[in-house]
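ARCHIVE CARD
Drawer: 12
Card no.: 0347
Subject: one protein chain, sequence and derived structure
Cross-reference: see card 0346
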Amino acid sequence: MDMPVNKFKRAIQAGTPQIGIWSALANNYVSEALAGAGFDWILLDTEHSPNELPMVMAQLQAVAAYPTQAVVRPAWNDLVLIKRFLDIGAQTLLVPFVQNAEEAKRAVRAVRYPPEGIRGVSGTTRANRFARVPDYFKRASEEVCLLVQLETRVALGELEKIAAIDGIDGIFIGPADLAADFGKLGTSGDPEVWTAISDAGKRIRKAGKPAGILAPVEADARRWLDEGFTFVSVGVDLGMLARGADALIKKFRP
């Protein structure tokens, strides 16, 4: 039995735009409904949602039936969290709040087996199809896609050093936290923040890495795609549900 090919990794390496959806509702039923819509990727969040390992595994299983590729965001750049997500079959990880090259290297070591890394070895997991993939340990790193999230001015200052780390497959800009770091909490559309994001996108591409961002406002998403961002999440399920509910009740109780 062969291991699954990471189509998301190959697509962003080829520079093919990937349109994604952010899932914060922490539910496999929701994940399956979103996966069936035709998005290229779906972000399963565990940083800012009440999502835990068994729930994420159920979401991965639900998404697996569709062409949509799953991306899991651990709550932190933590060896144990990363190891457990990889073992349940996550192939693409978005590691939040990476500040410098050393933290990026730590994430790379976490997703690779020795001697290149420090990922713990388990013989029978969902990742190796329960020991049915004979060459899994040799090929695992080929199919793992590691994305790191830069969220502060300090991180942007270290961008080139982070991008130069072998094993970093893409760099994601976190607009909300970046805005907060600029003293613009809750206003990620501020011109100063936008200028910083635009500049970061250019620098990421110049470094030869694909750039990603969350942009739930359509005009913003189109702008970043036009500027060359490769993987862009264009919506958040929780926000879509809440705003849709708001709009519906206003029709009856204006």
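Annotation on reverse: The chain is about 45% helix and 15% strand. The domain at 7-252 is CATH 3.20.20.60 (TIM Barrel).
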